[in-house]
Amino acid sequence: MRRPFTLLIAGVLLLPLAVTTGSAASGPAPGPITVDSVVPAPAEVVPSRAAPFRITATTVITATGAAVPVAEQLAAALRPATGHPLPVRAAGGPAIELRLNAAADPWLGDEGYRLEIGAGGVALRANRPAGLFAGTQTVRQLLPPQIEATSVRRADWTVPAGVIRDRPRFPYRGAMLDLARHFHPPADVKRYIDEISRFKINYLHLHLTDDQGWRIEIDGWPRLTTVGGGPGTGVRGLGGGHLTQDDYRDLVRYAAERYVTIVPEVDMPGHVNAAQVAYPELTCDGVAPRPRTDIRVGYSSLCTGKEVTYRFAEDVIRQLAALTPGPYLHLGGDEAHSTGHADYLAFEQRVLPLVARYGKIAYGWQEIAEAPAATGAVIQYWAATRDSPPVAAAAAAGAKVVLSPADRTYLDMQYDLLTPGGLHWAGTIEVDAAYGWDPATWARGVPAEAVLGVEAPLWSETLRDYGRIEFQAFPRLPAIAELGWSPRAAHDWTSFRERLGAYGRRWTRRGVHFYRSPRIRWS
Amino acid sequence: MRRPFTLLIAGVLLLPLAVTTGSAASGPAPGPITVDSVVPAPAEVVPSRAAPFRITATTVITATGAAVPVAEQLAAALRPATGHPLPVRAAGGPAIELRLNAAADPWLGDEGYRLEIGAGGVALRANRPAGLFAGTQTVRQLLPPQIEATSVRRADWTVPAGVIRDRPRFPYRGAMLDLARHFHPPADVKRYIDEISRFKINYLHLHLTDDQGWRIEIDGWPRLTTVGGGPGTGVRGLGGGHLTQDDYRDLVRYAAERYVTIVPEVDMPGHVNAAQVAYPELTCDGVAPRPRTDIRVGYSSLCTGKEVTYRFAEDVIRQLAALTPGPYLHLGGDEAHSTGHADYLAFEQRVLPLVARYGKIAYGWQEIAEAPAATGAVIQYWAATRDSPPVAAAAAAGAKVVLSPADRTYLDMQYDLLTPGGLHWAGTIEVDAAYGWDPATWARGVPAEAVLGVEAPLWSETLRDYGRIEFQAFPRLPAIAELGWSPRAAHDWTSFRERLGAYGRRWTRRGVHFYRSPRIRWS
């Protein structure tokens, strides 16, 4: 028996999208459109009783111009399991047609899409390639889970009939990966990009530096990576490494092909022990501290009274800005417990504007909110409390806020105290807790208009290998993705739980190591 | 190949106790006495080249008077694997002879023993039954690991020849088990007593009450256990329960037979949420708080301005004192963050003396040190720092101190961040960290004379079942036991690591779920 599925459309209409219970089921022919496995939930779904579209050996994917790369990616995703050739052509049929609107549809914006599915074809429309890409992720989720197989499967390759109109609630839907505490090679970061982009996550924030490791090559400061690229919190040879600038450029390119924008972070003035081990002149006494592999925080600080500190910061900011096509450059700023408060504010007043000088928007953890320069920045709210008067004040003065409350979005928190790996300093976070909050109203005093979006950080103290990244991220990352993408009125735990339970088969089929939460009935 | 084993005797002589390398080995006959598996290390070991004692079908265990129950326990421990009858008799031979000294040997004190082993017999002498019991634990560890089997095994049941003279460094060597966060039934507590008494642990501190549960029946306050005996931090029906007064008496008796003294703890004025759920009059506003299952601390407080608080405290103290033959009654006193500081001191000044009124010695976590009444008490040092001026001042004024530094002795801390279960707020603790400190000099300003001993607390937030108790306790509990029992000069990581590695086979044979630390070469 399939359970009835309902979805709010534009927050007004409540429609039963699938009522294919045992008695109502009509043989092998699928019913009207269902979004059983679609995560995040689309903004509007209008089911149809018409016949579905069926992918066959004669199906083509049509696209021209800027739509072609997206079409090629869709074809590559659908060919292995279907075994069909699915050529990408300018025209033809029966087709999955990807087309950019000649005149922009204002409702769709840059990332929205419209999907119309009938027996004759699938028409996907968007203003921009990012919207087409989002729409293709929905198409993949509308197909049976066997579509995830890497070799030919027998299945009914139908896409149910109906119309979906969809767009994101917030422009920023991020994931963060900490490469400092355990370095993970570019191939693993790409696998993570593959997975998160399926859920319409559009920013990947890379935490590139911390006390235990410095992971990005900086010209003129070679020891940052040759000395500072050690094991992080890793043991027995795990955890070390760094990205060359070529590696970083390649990651940026790979992510952009999936409409994910890389946000680089270099954390300062705290969390700099690895840099100071490499360059002792960055300490006030000029003495190199010992390398650290423990998980403590708050003990290191750049020397805010030395000019070399600002030469260092500007070199790093200038090079990262040049390497990064995306709009944001994250300067950390958190937990600088060993920097005097006045020194901290003076430091931020001097370095935050450097980001703008090199053409980027400054971004930092919420502690930067007290610096006047933060009013032009993006502030990442991470406290496990709903009150931060400095953030509220900065938002009132013009700052944008990304919500990453630690007790809801930190993917490194354990699911419960017995799940292996992860920390629990902000509590444990089961998938229902990750889902059960509203980014627009969470931080008291921060109005919805100031909220740029949400982000799910994944700190890597316990992430010894890629499997542990997946285990911590899934299924909580899709919860955060839905909070960021889907309209508030579509947020519904019962619906999400059902869709996630159905989605699990897709992870299983492609070998994703996810946490089988007891709160979910996995199908 | 067996590795050479050396041990300091009385801190002066360094003797090779076993040099049975490949070339020196002389066939199946064992060499001189070795203490390869003896944990904690005995104070003095004098090996002999004489023939060993062999347990055979004709061996008897001889004992009279108060030595008989200890002899019966030894016989019961040796019969299953040897298959020999090992009758306990007043006289006869060849014998393992247990005898209380007619005239006390001052060096041995109450818990020391002398063990002389030759081909003709084993002579175990002590001033008191507790010393005989300690000596029988050493005898068990001198036999081959097959002795742990529960059915007949073929092995060379020899005890190597030599003389051991042994006594504890500190009079208090404790383990603590938290029954509040997860209740564990008496049968599991007894299994834990069996295991810890092998390592000459002589106190078991039971943390009977906390925010999440109240686990001891108190006459006149029935709701403490009927309402307050809930799941603790447990889920899905686990974690609930309580001890009746009869259960508690039975545990006290069972422990005493193994020379383990129960120390009951009722925690106040904080950590009392479960009591307040049951009896809202214990709050200042008279309103029942919600039951708690999370792991937070510091939010609850008895109302120090109400007389009912002191009636409650006195009822509990009077009944526990009557139920407890041991000298100590622990009143908690930790983390009372919701009690005003002056109120806290006034509360302790009033309740600590109640313990003496009912014939016991007051005992509390280190926060009590600031109350003047604590100078007559035992103070349990738990901070993960080596400085506590209030504890130093109380010790100077006469208080005794038990060392339980959280970053060394808390068995609920994870071994590393990836071991399942356990917390890590005080850091991770591998077995070498648990072993590598000295209780006599750890707390700055607390002189060695003020140190009563050591204790290894095991908080139960993650202890869903008995296997998890074992996993957290072993092999770290033996490390703490050796710090508490063996002379300072015998503390040696290399030696401990070798003996622990050999001991592991005994845990394996009796099915103890221990952590196979990568720092140990398990044989």
UniProtKB/TrEMBL annotation, chains A, B:
Residues 37-166 form the Beta-hexosaminidase bacterial type N-terminal domain. It catalyses: Hydrolysis of terminal non-reducing N-acetyl-D-hexosamine residues in N-acetyl-beta-D-hexosaminides. The active site is at E335. Coiled coil: none annotated. One of its GO terms (molecular function) is beta-N-acetylhexosaminidase activity. Keywords: Glycosidase, Hydrolase, Signal. GO terms for cellular component: membrane. GO terms for biological process: carbohydrate metabolic process; glycosaminoglycan metabolic process. This is beta-N-acetylhexosaminidase. InterPro entries: Beta_hexosaminidase_sua/sub (IPR025705), GH (IPR017853), Glyco_hydro_20_cat (IPR015883), Hex-like_dom2 (IPR029018), HEX_bac_N (IPR015882). SUPFAM superfamilies: (Trans)glycosidases, beta-N-acetylhexosaminidase-like domain. Belongs to the glycosyl hydrolase 20 family. It comes from Actinoplanes teichomyceticus. Residues 170-487 form the Glycoside hydrolase family 20 catalytic domain. Residues 1-24 form the signal peptide. Its EC number is 3.2.1.52.
